[in-house]
Amino acid sequence: MTLEPRPGILDIRPYKPGAADAPGIANPVKLSSNENPLGCSPKAREAFEAAAKSLNLYPDGGAVKLRAAIAEMTGLEADRIVCGTGSDELLQLLGRSYLGPGDKVVQSQYGFLVYRLVAMQSGAELVSAPETDYRASVDAILEAAGDDAKIVFLANPNNPTGTYLPGDEIRRLHAGLPSTTLLVLDEAYAEYVDEADYETGVDLARNHDNVVVTRTFSKIHGLAALRLGWAYADRSIIDVLNRVRGPFNVNAPAIAAGTAAIRDTEFQRRSAEHNREQLAFLRQQLGGLGLDVTPSVGNFVLVHFPDTDGKRATDADAFLTSRGLILRPVAAYGIPHALRLTAGTAVQNRAVVNALAEFLKA
């Protein structure tokens, strides 16, 4: 007799991280995972090293100091914050808490792949709402959600497109959803955005009991290796998440590093400034090569390639990889003609541009 998992589990295709290796290349340039090219805050590194002296001790199960630091720096209430091993864990905890077999989950057409995993892990049905020019459509999401969606996931800004919805559209989306639908706003890239009409969803979450905002330390804070994130929501939701998370789900070095990182506003400022400069460079240079680049407010760009023999995205990916430049194919998102390029250092970005110029002329 073969032990069988719950129905639907074997239908799940495991999440595939961005590649890190290029065959035959000793030190490839990894621009496939939207990591911070400046590294992390020196203060966070020092805090991590200090915490490593006490690895024999259990961490604080409530991440009290980290939540207090987040509250201090964001103006939020510490008792309405829960921390997790990356925002990915928090998204999965929401699925475990609020989804069951047959429930409806809605995302935008090119939503983050983890939303599909969350739905499938719970046996829920995932519905993707069509986007317009790689931008989420509130009307399409509301139509897909109807009056019976349990969760609506929306990344704002979105990965892998880099597009966003302004604050008035987010409010219109929430207003159009029934009170029984949970709106989850995934703001992993929010700290990079400086558009005047962009708004974080924390005010919605503060004033309504069916909104959750998630953030991560993996992007602007440069702590991807530590797997650290947090969520802000009504106390009733935080209470539920605290009941289903592991008792020590965040490790002590991550708590220490995250506490230092959230307070290092100078490192965050430098990271955001570097990103603005490099996004502008990539848009200008890649556009000059004749490539279409979706406008992005994240720390990456989506680069589209022609449907021409020898010049497709798969060809470009192979060419770049052979030169030790690793980008992220996004066929799994339904965009087979594009590659996602993390905005790296100035030297790395120039290397990609030069290589693509050679590729397109070949």
UniProtKB/TrEMBL annotation:
Record pathway: Amino-acid biosynthesis; L-histidine biosynthesis; L-histidine from 5-phospho-alpha-D-ribose 1-diphosphate: step 7/9
Cofactor requirement: pyridoxal 5'-phosphate
Protein name: Histidinol-phosphate aminotransferase
Modified residues (N6-(pyridoxal phosphate)lysine): K219
Gene Ontology MF terms: histidinol-phosphate transaminase activity
Subunit structure: Homodimer.
Family the UniProt entry places it in: Belongs to the class-II pyridoxal-phosphate-dependent aminotransferase family. Histidinol-phosphate aminotransferase subfamily.
Ranges of residues in domain Aminotransferase class I/classII large: 28-356
Keyword Transferase assigned: yes
Reactions this protein catalyses: L-histidinol phosphate + 2-oxoglutarate = 3-(imidazol-4-yl)-2-oxopropyl phosphate + L-glutamate
HAMAP family according to UniProt: HisC_aminotrans_2
SUPFAM superfamilies from the UniProt entry: PLP-dependent transferases (SSF53383)
Enzyme class, broadest EC rank: transferase
Keywords, alphabetical: Amino-acid biosynthesis, Aminotransferase, Histidine biosynthesis, Pyridoxal phosphate, Transferase
The keyword Mitochondrion is assigned to this record: no
InterPro entries xref list: Aminotransferase_I/II_large, HisP_aminotrans, HistidinolP_aminotransfase, PyrdxlP-dep_Trfase, PyrdxlP-dep_Trfase_major, PyrdxlP-dep_Trfase_small
